[in-house]
Amino acid sequence: MKKLLIILLLLFPVHGAWAENLFLECGVPNKIKMYYEMDLKNKTVKHYDDTYKIQYMDDKYFHWTMNHYYKKEGYSVMGYVSIDRVNGNIKVESSEPIPDAEVTKWLNTTSSRPPIDDTQYGKCSKWSGKKKF
Predict the structure, then answer these.
(1) Does 10 fall in a domain?
(2) How far apart are CA 12 and CA 7, in angstroms?
(3) Measured between alpha carbons, how far is residue 97 from residues 20, 67, 72 in Å?
(4) CB burial class (10 A; 0-12, 13-18, 19+) of residue 49?
(5) 39 SS3 class
(6) Distance between CA 85 and CA 112 in Å, rounded?
(7) Do the beta carbons of residue 109 and residue 98 sit within 8 Å?
(8) How many domains does the structure of the chain reveal?
């Protein structure tokens, strides 16, 4: 029995299930493609040059908060991102513009949010070998 298990593991490696990094390409209508590198071990998401903490992660979802600089100097827009780990659907909620001085407060809280101005839905595809996001 042990020999059979070893042969099966050699023929069908499962190392992708233990991957610590996940690379995603996400498309939202009327927007450019977004690229995310997720470090599952440290629970962080890298989006271009910015790194954000994954606030919630379970078998079904990833959730994190990110800030985007707004057209008006001194203001930012908060983005609340949820990705369904089973089907790859992404939901991005964008806040109304808030003063930059308040960004840290909103990045570090999960109990409240600034008012939501826009919600976009899209689809993500993965670049790693994991079966599930």
Answers:
(1) no
(2) 8
(3) 34, 10, 9
(4) exposed
(5) strand
(6) 24
(7) no
(8) 1
Do 80 and 56 meet the contact criterion of CB atoms below 8 Å apart? Answer: no
Range of the domain at 90: 41-128
pLDDT confidence bin for 126, thresholds 50/70/90: confident
**pTM for the predicted model, two decimal places:** 0.72
Judge whether 90 lies within some domain: yes
Judge whether 133 lies within some domain: no
- What residue type is 132 in one-letter code? K
Nearest-angstrom CA–CA distance, 90 and 93: 10
| Model pLDDT for residues 65-124, shown as the tens digit of each residue | 887 767 778 898 888 999 998 899 999 898 899 888 888 777 777 678 888 888 989 999
Residue 80: alpha-carbon gap to chain centroid: 9
By the 8 A CB rule, do 125 and 12 touch?
A: no
